[in-house]
Amino acid sequence: MAFLEIKNVSRELVDNDNKKLKIINNVNFSVEKGEFLSIIGPSGCGKTTLLRLISGLSQPEEGEIKLFGKKITGPSVSKGYVFQHGSLYPWETIEQNISAGLEATQGKGFDKSLVKHFIEIMGLQGFENSYPNQVSGGMAQRAALARSLILKPNLLLLDEPMGALDAFTRADVQNIVYRLWKDTETTMILVTHDIDEAIYLGQRILVMTPHPGEVKEIVDNKLSFPRERNSKEFLEQRRKLQEILSFE
After folding, report:
1. Is 112 helix (H, G, I), strand (E, B) or coil?
2. 36-40 and 187-191 beta bridge pairing
3. Which of 1, 42, 71, 230 is 20 to 30 A away from residue 172, measured at CA?
4. Contact between 186 and 178 (Cβ < 8 Å)
5. pLDDT < 70: residue spans in the chain
6. Beta carbons of 127 and 139 less than 8 angstroms apart
7. d(CA 210, CA 205)
8. Could you tell me the domains of the chain?
């Protein structure tokens, strides 16, 4: 039995004319425990919709999604979710944001040394008492990652968390995500528009078709870690994915 199983999953929405619009159609794949899976595809193919279904934030019209063999019926602390813009609470400091989940699940007696540890490994020392609008986008995303990982989820869902960052900061956060994945052995699923990012982080890369989204192909990424973005093997993997996506 796989760690995560997606079987025959379809999702529909109703448009302004009250017509049903299929977002994803008959999606099937599985994820093993500790795996890093990247998901890529054209805009509007349902990548974020799929991630929301896995998180339990919404439910499919058809099919089912199972984690540890149990059907996912809603959100839980076993599934962390990092959004594109982090979704930090603007009225709370960086330290308070990171500890928010711990306080919600454990009360005021949560382990403050664990918060300090995550602040250190995320390189946020000196910004503990700053508010989200007082730090860079990269720092905010590191705080969002810490807020999710501090709860030790079995599965971390990453919805384009580096999408709004500049190239240098993006590479820095990618390296942090890689180190956290290796150190914590947390199963991670990343949705991204960036082919290089998908290759750099993913052990497998799931390619979705245009709307409605279906699984076009799942590519094994055999490149050894750490990965060199300008290596011959990396560039060959990029070319292969571009062909699958039918880029000119």
Report:
1. helix
2. parallel
3. 42
4. no
5. 86, 247-248
6. yes
7. 16
8. 32-61+69-244 (3.40.50.300)
